[in-house]
Design a protein that fits this description.
With about 300 residues, the chain is of the alpha+beta class. The protein is built from nine helices and 18 strands. Bound molecules: zinc ion. The site of zinc ion has 6 residues, from helix 5.
């Protein structure tokens, strides 16, 4: 049973101005951490093309979520500051996708930071909208950062020869991954990591397979409520939380993606974690609450 009263008892303190994608960033403090949500931009998600609802009629799910076929979606990244280090989770799409994306660098600067300020960079997975901001014209955008890539993810996208198991829309990822990581690899600033890794004693990876084979979230212990950055665990919160069985065409392993989402949502709800999601409405931060059928997203920040 999820304790909703617990979930709202320790809200993070938002700074003014209130969160808006136009500002490009939204910063708040929790415990000994400062979290800045960074907007990379927005894109239209065509629900009928992207969502896979199995037995449940998608029309009905969209109607219940008060959504039409075109769902406005965001791409979010997150900067963590612990007072000594700056850690960036994901880098947006850079120039690899829609022209409405690729704003991460500008958002970072609007928030008062430079790419050179970033000490380490963690990627949730190697899809274009998460790694496209790493490299521009063959040069590393982040001149000091060490880039950490989940080992399973690197093994799949950098070494796998079987491209047929992924949706055609993400097949270019095999090339993008090589290209975006190349300057960091050449510079000795790219690391593959496994489940035993942690950073600065407060940040640990959580393997969330299904969307991609090595899809990984990151749990941050703040001294108050934990924040879990969950990458692409869901793309349309209003549908996939209410009905966690709904997958997306980009999922490499849909059955695994469903099971991972179910387990993650139950645990995040039980613990009262704050969740940072790459494609939830900006700033992409919320709590997971139980609803009559599944779960519901309660934005915070
Ligand atoms: Zn994504």
């Amino acid at each position: 049973m999820c304790d909703d009263s617990l979930s709202v008892s320790l809200p993070p303190v938002p700074e003014s101005p209130p969160a808006s994608a136009e500002a490009g960033f939204h910063r708040f403090h929790i415990g000994r951490m400062t979290i800045t949500a960074l907007c990379d931009g927005h894109f239209p998600l065509y629900a009928q093309d992207i969502l896979r609802s199995g037995e449940s009629p998608l029309d009905k799910l969209l109607m219940e979520a008060r959504l039409g076929n075109v769902v406005p979606s965001h791409v979010n990244a997150f900067l963590i500051e612990d007072g000594q280090h700056r850690i960036l989770i994901d880098t947006g799409a850079g120039e690899l996708q829609d022209a409405t994306l690729g704003r991460l660098g500008a958002s970072l600067i609007s928030a008062g930071h430079q790419p050179a300020d970033v000490d380490i960079l963690l990627v949730t997975h190697l899809h274009a909208d998460h790694i496209g901001g790493l490299t521009r014209h063959g040069e590393a955008v982040f001149p000091r950062a060490v880039v950490y890539v989940p080992h399973e993810e690197a093994a799949f996208w950098l070494e796998a020869s079987d491209r047929d198991i992924v949706d055609p829309s993400v097949r270019a990822t095999f090339d993008h991954a090589h290209r975006m990581l190349a300057p960091y690899v050449a510079d000795g600033r790219c690391r593959w990591f496994g489940s035993e890794t942690s950073w600065y004693g407060c940040l640990t990876p959580e393997w969330l397979p299904g969307h991609t084979r090595g899809h990984t979230g990151y749990r941050l212990q703040t001294g108050e409520r934990d924040i879990v950055f969950c990458g692409d665990l869901f793309h349309v919160a209003a549908v996939q939380l209410a009905e966690p069985e709904v997958t997306v065409c980009y999922d490499s392993e849909p059955m695994q993606a469903k099971a991972t989402r179910q387990a993650f949502l139950a645990e995040a709800c039980r613990r009262g974690d704050i969740v940072g999601a790459a494609h939830a409405p900006f700033p992409g931060l919320g709590h997971i609450h139980k609803s009559a059928r599944g779960y519901v997203w309660h934005p915070v920040g």
